[in-house]
Amino acid sequence: MSTAEKTRLRIRRSAQVLVAEHGAGNLTIDAIARHAGVSKGGLLYHYANKQALLEAMLEDLLSTRKALFLSSKAQQGQTAQLKAMINTEFSLTLVERATANAILASGAENPALLDPVREYFTILFDHLAQGANDPDLGTTAILAVQGLQLLETLGLYQFESADKDRLRLRLLALVS
């Protein structure tokens, strides 16, 4: 990884931490630069504006999930793939959840920011429909996980850890 790539990663991680600690509304270029240990100009060299930084943060969130159904894991069959996707979604950290919340909030002001998310879900649901033994089961499982994540991301309902573990195990059993 080049020095520039390391700096961009440090900037994105700093932005994620700040969002988790202080909320999306308080995310500023100045605060991110201070936290990342770069000048404001240095940050703007790597990310021309807050929008570009949010887009990169969104790509970080989506890349792992895309890999689950676009990589060799897809060759393992629907069951293994769905289990990996369920486990990945249930393992979202507070920082990842806060990042998703910041991106959703920014998407309200600039709907184009959510285009990669729309593309992700289009690819995901097309993939489930085309390559699955039971497309409805896969779609139902993913909708259940995404519904849970959305409730928690928006702060509408927070599941207890034990409840989440129980729900994760139940979904894993359903797709087996």
Helix-strand string: HHHHHHHHH
Task: Count helical runs.
Answer: 9
Beta-strand percentage?
Answer: under 5%
Distance between the termini: 38 Å
| Helix coverage percent | over 70%
How many strands, what sense, and barrel or not for the largest sheet? Answer: none
Class based on secondary structure composition and strand pairing: mainly alpha
Radius of gyration: 18 Å
Overall pLDDT metric: 86
> Quick one: overall form?
globular
Instruction: Name the poorly predicted regions.
Output: none
Number of strands: 0
TL;DR of this structure?
With 176 residues, the chain is an all-alpha fold.
Describe the structure.
With 176 residues, the chain is mainly α. It has helices at 3-22, 29-36, 40-46, 50-70, 78-90, 94-109, 115-131, 135-153, 161-175. Helix 2 packs across helix 3 (40-46) and helix 5 (78-90) packs parallel to helix 8. The radius of gyration is 18 Å and the shape is globular. The mean pLDDT is 86.
